[in-house]
Amino acid sequence: MSQTTTEKVIHSLKKRHRKEKVFKAGGFLAVLFGFFLVFALISDIVIKATPAFSQHWIKLEIDYRSDWLDVEGINVSELESANYRGVLKKSLYQMMPEVSGRRDKRGLSKLVSTSAEFTIRDYLIANPEWVEKKVDVWVKLDDDVDTYLKDEVPLGEPGPRVTEKSAQWIKQWVESGLIESRFNVDFFTQGDSREPESAGVKGALTGTLYTMLVTLLLSFPLGVAAALYLEEFAPRNRFTDFIEVNINNLAAVPSIVFGLLGLAVIINVFGMPRSTPLVGGVVLTLMTLPTIIIASRASIKAVPPSIREAAMGLGASRMQVAFGHVLPLAMPGIITGTIIGMAQALGETAPLLMIGMVAFIVDVPGSVTDAATVMPVQIYLWADSPERAFVAKTSAAILVLLGFLLVMNSIAAFMRKKFEKRW
């Protein structure tokens, strides 16, 4: 018996509705799977980064004897060049008299960070009256000891890079209340270091801020001006078509090519200094300009022609129409394109490696012409380091970079909302 037209339509509707439900379920699962992957990635980074935000310190009784310091008085210039390494070792041996033998003493001194001698130096320079006195000073433990304590290995048992004797000494210090864990403020206030316990992100974070500032100050006005000219003023001919095609092609060029361009032209031809945020900003500007121009043109093109026609009907010039009506209405989309370009520049490493921003730089840059590195390069350097403590530092630096990106995008979103106008 043949189906009627109504029955065929009902059967077709059921089939289409079933397909629609399957598609919706597949789309929902795809979104859910994507969120799960992001959550798993962020969770893994947070778990690995947690140890980097704490640091173990030990309280040592430092004996500032003048004969150990190799000084004759409390003159500040003498104190700055005193023998603090010897004071640190002898005070440590004095605190642990049961440790004997050259090898054991060397192992004991290695349990304390190499930065400890600078810590006790700074304390004495700030308090020169401590000469010939014994003072309790908190100093950092070595990164191997710090990692050993964070791994929660049973006290007294040897662990990775911690011998049995060293484990016994650490157990003695813990039970005596000489060791405590503190929030690692130095991670945010110090520059890079060869020693994981002393390494911080301030230098790389400052370099990133300067580089992004240079990139924004150059790419935003140039990109918007180019987009506005091409969309509102440029004649339609082969030359402008050639420019448009090349802008679209530049958006797909690998980022390392821009690094090679910066090395060959900006540094070698113009003689600008290597490893500086100024050169890094110029290179990233060249890389982000196509993205900003394309997004800005699309936003300008989206402004209704009636806005232009109404303004020109009231006697406004093309310049007044472009800057007084079209540009303000297109600004939210332009800012969105700028966010995309800046976010891309923030995570770039390859072009900056080519211009020397991969160098080991301890000092925090004070201007755009000082030698610096940036967060992605700092993460790359730490990830390549053999010390276990740098694993946590790498993950913590990734969280700082994501936080920097979040703050930057939040400011941009606020500006976009402020300039948003409806028609």
What's the SSE blueprint?
Layout: H1 5-49, E1 54-63, H2 66-69, H3 76-80, H4 84-95, H5 102-109, H6 116-126, E2 134-140, H7 143-150, H8 164-175, E3 179-183, H9 186-189, H10 202-233, H11 238-250, H12 255-267, H13 277-301, H14 305-313, H15 318-346, H16 350-354, H17 375-383, H18 389-419
Antiparallel strand pairs: 1-2, 1-3
Helix pairs in contact: 1-18, 4-6, 10-13, 10-15, 12-13, 13-15, 14-15, 15-18, 17-18
Short structural description:
The protein is built from 18 helices and three strands.
What does this structure look like?
- With 423 residues, the chain is mainly alpha-helical.
- It folds into 3 domains: 46 residues; 135 residues, no CATH class; 218 residues, MetI-like (MetI-like fold).
- Helix content is 65%, strand content 5%.
- It is built from 18 helices and 3 strands.
- A 3-stranded antiparallel β-sheet has the order 2-1-3.
- It is elongated.
Features:
5% strand, elongated, 18 helices, 423 residues, 3 strands, MetI-like fold, single chain, mainly alpha, three-stranded antiparallel β-sheet, 3 domains
Largest sheet: 3 strands, antiparallel
Helix/strand-derived class? Answer: mainly alpha
The amount of beta strand, in percent, is 5-15%
The strand line-up of the biggest sheet is 2-1-3
Highest CATH level, the class of the largest domain: Mainly Alpha
Count of folded domains: 3
First-to-last CA distance: 59 Å
Report the CATH superfamily of the largest domain: MetI-like
> What's the helix-strand series?
HEHHHHHEHHEHHHHHHHHHH
- Percentage of helical residues? 55-70%
Mean pLDDT: 87
